[in-house]
Amino acid sequence: MTNLQDTVTLNNGVKMPGFGLGVYKMEDGQSVVQSVKAALKHGYRLIDTASYYHNEEGVGQAVRESGIPREEIFVTSKVWNDQQGYDNTLKAFEDSLEKLGLDYLDLYLVHWPVTGKFKDTYRALEKIYEEGKVRAIGVSNFQVHHLEDLLKDCKVKPVINQVEYHPHLTQEELKVYCEKENIQLEAWAPLKRGGVFDEPIIQELSEKYRKTPAQVILRWDVQHNVVTIPKSVKEQRIIENADIFDFSLTKEEVKQIDSLNRNERSGPDPDTFV
To answer: What's the rounded Cα separation, in Å, for the pair 139 and 155?
Structure first.
């Protein structure tokens, strides 16, 4: 990626922005509307929400009121755990579409691999995809064994696996597997909610490049070819987060940040959460 409008090509040929705005824990109403509008105004074209976030209405309002053609904005949503199963997922998708006030979604994901349900849930995504209501489908929080199980009998390969990914959780085995299977990795909580800012190497690189610790980490994501969706409600922070295309980390610096891995999560473990 060389700028905020650069895209990655997914395994079904759809082009997706490589950097965007996540809206987890943003309150619906003016908070999320203003944040999404600010992001779109400053060049963001990827907006990531979910039914669980309870802010799809505000996201859709911001998209519609932005003045930017709908086809230029890439909107992702996800089906939550208590909505899973084939019929429930079909209904959940229609509910999300209605709340967003959109005619289609660009990407729809299975939010978590709910044991005994995620395959039926994904079958529903395949039907939605075949009907042309969504441009791409994928998964979130899937480990290698979940993906192996899904790939045994799915008809449409997931284009994305959106997972927690940051310098304390580099998920190398999963990353290699996804690359081998041509499934794009996408990072949620890329900044570990600020939990990696105090690492000496991050501080050192921050001073060297005159960038914030967040910008250093987000640059590291981009150089790993991981789609990245940092969240912020503040316009200045939204601008800052995207100001990462005027410098590059060296290969050695990328490896130094890689070495911070602790296999440490800030969110739930997919193997025990559902």
So the answer is: 14
CB atoms near residue 231 (< 10 Å): 20
Tokens representing residue 148 in the block: 């192996």
pLDDT digits (tens, 9 = 90+) for 14-47: 999 999 999 999 999 999 999 999 999 999 999 9
For the chain, helix (H) and strand (E) counts, in that order, are 11, 10
CATH number at residue 25: 3.20.20.100
CB 187 within 8 A of CB 226: yes
Into how many domains does the chain fold? 1
CA dist., res. 26 & res. 54, Å (int):
9
Q: For 129-183, what is each residue's pLDDT tens digit? A: 999 999 999 999 999 999 999 999 999 999 999 999 999 999 999 999 999 999 9
Told to judge if 53 belongs to the known catalytic residues of this protein, a careful annotator would answer yes
Selected catalytic residue, list 24, 44, 53, 86: 53
